[in-house]
Amino acid sequence: MARRLGITGGIGSGKTTVCRIFRVLGVPVFVADVAARRLMNNDPAIRSEMNKIAGKDLYEGGELDRRELARLIFNEPDMLQKVNASVHPAVLREFEAWSSVIDAPYVIMEAAILFEARADRLVDRVISISAPVEERISRVMGRSEISREEVLERINNQMEDNEREEQSYYVINNADNEMIIPEILKIHDDMLRLAAKER
Prior knowledge:
The protein has nine helices and five strands; from the N terminus they run E-H-E-H-H-H-H-E-E-H-H-H-E-H. With 199 residues, it is of the alpha/beta class.
């Protein structure tokens, strides 16, 4: 079976960019957020659970009203916990099934809340991506129609960078002036060596 590498980091840290480089190197990437979004839209049990947690219909337009859900949960830690408890196990089951049939030396799971979802138990090593807060805010505001306050609120609701880094095998500083490709190539070689030991 393929070795597994987890990639995590806060909002705007640059996880997508890092994963894009790994994809160019031929590494299959499972994006937990994409899987979660699909499950929240299509899985009848999860849809019904989302409405129960919210106390209202979040699917009036046919798909999950993500903005409304975000508005409801970001100031309600209990509600956020319930949403996560409903979605995370299904996402992790999908990752397990997906990674068990991939023919590659190693695969990647990209998840913003990898440690919080306890997904680190499913991977061999973890990379934590960090970046200065101001750069993260401008990146998110540049790609989404959300305010500075909303970005800060999301950052404050996530695990601190140093807490993530302490639990990670690798750390990449993705500040705008940093060269990240050499770091990624080093990690890629390292993971290939780890996978070769297994074979």
